[in-house]
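Appendix B, Record 12. Input sequence as logged:
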Amino acid sequence: MRPFIALSVLLAWPLAEIAGFVVVGRALGLWWTLGLVIMTGLLGAFLMRQQGLHLLKKLSQESQQGQVPASSVIDGAMIVVAGILLLLPGFVTDIVGIALFIPLVRRFLWSMIGKRVVVVGPRGKSGFSRPSGGPRETPNTAGKVVDLDEEDFHRNSDPNPSSPWSKGIDRDP
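Logged structural output:
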């Protein structure tokens, strides 16, 4: 069902943009339509810069106060998407982009999709997290991570036979 919806949106979006150009072009004329498209692109760049600078100040203040700036990061991501939509030519993308610059719309949209988003922070106090392709950590790992190069690691030629780690290891001659 979901791929059908995504395919429908991908096919309907350009058609809606073309229809928007035709409607606005008939109402305003060719040059006013082109001017409006260029102006919305410039408006998107201006708003993205202005809102982005404001957001950076807010992120800095929240992090200096020791708060986790989760809502600021989400707002920032939506502002970037809004700016990109305004930079793209088309009236449907412009309407969606302008709507995303409104904080109330961003909060409403996040309340709708935020339930489905899972944010996973780094484990431990060090901020270290394994890459997604690596082995999985168990939740109760509390030891230190020691990173050794091949030259740093060597086997003891006379291992302790009572050690559980020495069992089943092939010994090199």
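Residues 79 and 149 are 43 Å apart (CA to CA).
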